[in-house]
Sequence to fold (243 residues):
Amino acid sequence: MKLRNPKGRDDLSIQRKYKVLEVGGGHNPSTRSNVIVDKYIYNNYHRSGDLKIYNNQEFVCADGECLPFEDKSFDYVICCQVLEHVNDPIKFVKEQQRVAQGGYIETPSLIGEFLMPKESHKWVSLEIDEKIVLYEKEKVQFKAIRDYGYLFLDFLPRQSIGYKVMQKTHFNILSINYEWKDEVELIVNPDSSYYFDFFTKPWDEGICNKLLRYKSINEEFYSSLNAFLALCKNVFRSKILKV
Fold:
């Protein structure tokens, strides 16, 4: 079942005693992961840089659809920006459910894929009714006109405080951040027009209210204030304390 939508992989419900697996750590694994699994050692087609493993981490070369671990070997499994690449999402997610008690899945949202498209991404996704819904790009006739990845991933995060605040207060616009326990509710290529319309029709007020939770003025104010204070804290730690 779904637990919540974390703000990112630095906001996960991982206890200190947990043994943590990461599937597809790639060039940017979590420092909290004890074991890293990756299918590709030298091929960077599915990632933005060379494979990276920290000194305290164990590396296992394996396919995420067939993990070489016993049932419930781990307390928690992290899977960031990988689900959109795989051949069989259901098999891939079932393997994580088999080897871990719970975990975290992060994948680009439909909007994120439009703005920052990748040829290596086979699937587009949305969270609808607390379920992760995936469609093959061809099935929904997905076509990205331009790649604005540099703008949203590099330029604005460096240059715009307002954008950084938006990232922290509306983190689910560009990505799906989904923390789960026991089981992930995953739907792949559903025939239902109910799901299909989210991926193919213009977004009106009804769809926006369905996908993006409405916030009151007070909620918006306090979330923006907390985001700004968190940014100030990060700047102080990095610039003054050199942490």
Q: What stands out?
A: The mean pLDDT is 92. Strands lie at 2-4, 20-23, 35-38, 58-61, 76-80, 102-108, 123-128, 131-136, 175-181, 186-188. The first strand starts at residue 2 and ends at 4.
